[in-house]
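Section handout 9: paired folding examples.
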Amino acid sequence: MSRNICSHRSGTCIAAKNVIKKYKRKYRIAGDNSMNMVWLSYLKFLEMFSKDLREYAAQNQIKKYTPAQINKLYVDKMEKYKI
């Protein structure tokens, strides 16, 4: 019972750690589950990148991306944000 009772702050931390675990599993990334700005900024980058992919697909009427198209967009985006 006591595990469910926590402050807003600790609840937020737990939620963020769970998000990090989910992305690490999805992208098969190894390492501990410490919260740091590198992970949070990378997750933000992935979020923006997927949004850009959807917008680009809508503009260019792409039904399904090829790996080469995704790779090119990913490299362009990395250069744009200097990551």
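Moving on to protein 2 of 2.
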Amino acid sequence: MAPEYLIHGQFSVKSDIYSFGVLVLEIISGHKNNYFHQTEQALDLLSNAWRKWEEGTALDLLDSTLRDNHSTNEVMKCVQIGLLCVQEVARRPTMASVVQILNSYSFSIPLPSPSAPAYIPNTSMESNMVREEYGTSTTDRSQSNKTEQSINDVSITQLLPR
């Protein structure tokens, strides 16, 4: 679910693009977005994909069943498209441009470099955004002796067929 919908309740075409990016990364990696909550590797698929992209090891995301039969260029293009789709709202591509890139057989269409995903938990940007949303400053938090609580109350619904 797109962060702008979770935080502000705003839904748009760009929210669908965010979801598409998550799906692309899930298909490439063979893992659901919440898979990494069960491991110590990363907090979620997006932060793991972004970290590997930054380290230049994005091919490590590839699902083991796809490793023997893949085009490195196609995999890198899909990872890059996935990361472009999960950026901040204003930086996300249109679906028309994503389709054009996916349909192109040549690599002559230059893809922009992705920026960090719109939501990476436990970053200072995310913490500041939430503090502004709830009106809590850093000094207010340091003066209180309360137990630190997570404000990432997100539930995951899994639909099962009958």
